[in-house]
Design a protein that fits this description.
Membrane topology: Peripheral membrane protein
Order of helices and strands: EEEHEEHEHHHHEHEHEEHH
Family: Belongs to the ABC transporter superfamily.
Low-confidence stretches: none
Organism: Streptomyces polygonati
Number of helices: 10
Number of domains: 1
Keywords: ATP-binding, Cell membrane, Membrane, Nucleotide-binding, Transport
CATH class: Alpha Beta
Number of strands: 10
Protein name: ATP-binding cassette domain-containing protein
CATH architecture: 3-Layer(aba) Sandwich
CATH topology: Rossmann fold
Helix content: 40-55%
Distance between the termini: 47 Å
CATH superfamily: P-loop containing nucleotide triphosphate hydrolases
Mean pLDDT: 93
Radius of gyration: 19 Å
Bound molecules: adenosine-5'-triphosphate
Shape: globular
Strand content: 15-25%
């Protein structure tokens, strides 16, 4: 079953400027798809369109269908906000680049994780407290992290909290939009490994958005390459890395290899 089917997606500004044109892809249950492209290529807007969260004034055309167990198959484009609220968190949830955008600076971490659990799963009292503890444990944070405010924990820990919140309603699809770009390199690797194991354990579908080919290649098995709002190439990670067809993809691969080569020379 496809959890997400995007077909002929177009996104325009209110003055008619096309930002994304005719983008199509799908992600099956347990599948992992990467959206890659340089800054401004339309990756984030595509991810936001999937959630029905485009900025005001922008319009989407084409089709974005979400289908998750226990929920009605829904065409997101043109859906009423009421319908989308029911889907967000459960059919699909997002982890953004900057965890602070997802977190309330004035609320303790535990309460923030409790909120979706209370609202969507109807948990209260001791059951809610237990579920918060479990959610923290799943993202490898100690139970005492529940009492911290976001500014009292590190960037990597904050991203773990954002992941715990995204997973609280057991979404069928997790969208990770540059989830490690704001983190130190060593912390990046830990958060990527955590995402990898959580997605596998829950057989979730993953849509992973990044400008970093090496990161996308490690996190996904299929890739769509975006350039100026258009999909210029798509295929398995293996094909994209070893036999890129489009000159833009070849450039991405060459730059990633140069960087890798430079790093190896530095380490030696
Ligand atoms: N709110 C907005 N109003 C007008 N144009 C926008 C808005 N948000 C994004 N854009 C434009 O849409 C295009 C695609 O943006 P998008 O954020 O999807 O790119 P991206 O590939 O995710 O890049 P980045 O990695 O830098 O976020 C860019 O040209 C951007 O300037």
């Amino acid at each position: 079953m496809n959890v997400l089917d995007v077909s002929g997606l177009g996104i325009r500004t209110s003055d008619g400027r096309a930002l994304v044109s005719d983008v199509s892809f799908s992600v099956g249950s347990g599948g992992r798809l990467g959206l890659i492209g340089e800054s401004g290529s339309g990756k984030s807007l595509t991810a936001l369109a999937v959630m029905g969260l485009l900025p005001p004034g922008m319009t989407a055309t084409g089709s974005v269908v979400l289908e998750a167990p226990g929920l009605p198959r829904t065409e997101v484009i043109g859906a009423a906000e009421r319908q989308l609220v029911g889907l967000r968190g459960r059919a699909a949830a997002v982890v953004f680049q900057e965890p602070l955008t997802a977190l309330d600076p004035l609320m303790r971490v535990g309460r923030q994780i409790a909120e979706p659990l209370r609202r969507r799963r109807g948990l209260r009292g001791a059951a809610l407290k237990r579920a918060v503890g479990e959610a923290l444990d799943q993202v490898r944070l100690p139970e005492r992290a529940a009492r911290a405010y976001p500014h009292e924990i590190s960037g990597g820990q904050r991203q773990r909290v954002a992941i715990a919140m995204a997973l609280a309603c057991e979404p069928a699809l997790l969208i990770a939009d540059e989830p490690t770009t704001a983190l130190d390199v060593t912390v990046q690797a830990e958060v990527l490994a955590l995402l990898d194991s959580l997605v596998s354990e829950r057989a979730m579908a993953l849509l992973f958005v990044s400008h970093d080919l090496a990161v996308v290649a490690g996190a996904t098995d299929r890739v769509v390459v975006l350039k100026d709002g258009e999909a210029v190439e798509s295929g398995s990670v293996d094909d994209i890395l070893h036999a890129p067809r489009h000159p833009y993809t070849r450039n991405l691969v060459t730059s990633a290899r140069h960087l890798e080569g430079a790093l190896e020379r530095t380490i030696r």
